Amino acid sequence: MIRVKLPYHLRNLAQVGPEVEIEVEGELTIGSILDALEAQYPVLYGTIRDRTTKKRRPFLRFFACEEDYSHESSDTSLPDAVSLGKEPFFIVGAIAGG
Questions:
Q1: Residue numbers of the domain that contains 42
Q2: Residue 98 lies in a domain
Q3: Mean pLDDT over each residue of the chain, to the nearest integer
Q4: What is the 3-state secondary structure (H, E, C) of the chain?
Q5: Residue 28 near residue 82 (C-beta atoms within 8 A)
Q6: Count of structural domains within the chain
Q7: What is the pLDDT of residue 95?
Q8: pLDDT in tens, 70-90
Q9: Domain CATH code at residue 48
Q10: pTM for this model (two decimals)
């Protein structure tokens, strides 16, 4: 099982706690995690990435094992610690302002 930490607005929308567990088939990539997350929680479809282009939405960031994966392609493999459930995959809501 893959552990995914969600920001408040997404966990509120999906009506879940701060961390969810999902099953990911095949190679563990950013895209496969997001595909599995959207399949398990359809209400999140289109909120994390654009429905057409599949690009990450602005003001959301991805982290794993203290590394920023926000600007990596969706087919980027993630560390073994994430696939083993030792470390979560973080989806973080960024803050902007002036």
A1: 2-93
A2: no
A3: 94
A4: CEEEECCHHHHHHHCCCCEEEECCCCCCEHHHHHHHHHHHCHHHCCCCECCCCCCECCCEEEEECCEECCCCCCCCECCHHHHCCCCCEEEEECCCCC
A5: yes
A6: 1
A7: 78
A8: 999 999 999 999 999 999 999
A9: 3.10.20.30
A10: 0.92
